Amino acid sequence: MKNSLLLGLWRYLLPIPRFIWQRQVRDEANLKFMSPDHHRVRDFVVMEIPRAGKPLSPDCIARALHLPADRLSFILDDLEKHMTFLFRNPQGEVEWAYPVTAACTPHHVAFSSGERIDAA
What we know:
Number of helices: 4
CATH superfamily: Winged helix-like DNA-binding domain superfamily/Winged helix DNA-binding domain
Radius of gyration: 14 Å
Shape: globular
Number of strands: 7
CATH architecture: Orthogonal Bundle
């Protein structure tokens, strides 16, 4: 599922391979602001929120990705500013990273790996 876009269909998230969706995204969204570290952070929080089942602290993310705290803070600010990929709660933790959230929503998903989480 790495490098796949997750498409929500009823109760399921279906992986769409990168080569299929990348051309469409390139044409419709300006993702040039995203560095390789932006992608690493976004990919990590999308995969880790379902595993953890709770919001992720900046310290946890920085340790896992071996990023300096100030670099991670810049990246989180940038991703949130572009209103594209994530949202932080008042404590500064990443609460949702599209398409998953640690918040309670009426949209529930289950992964083939057994994790269950709410969808953003």
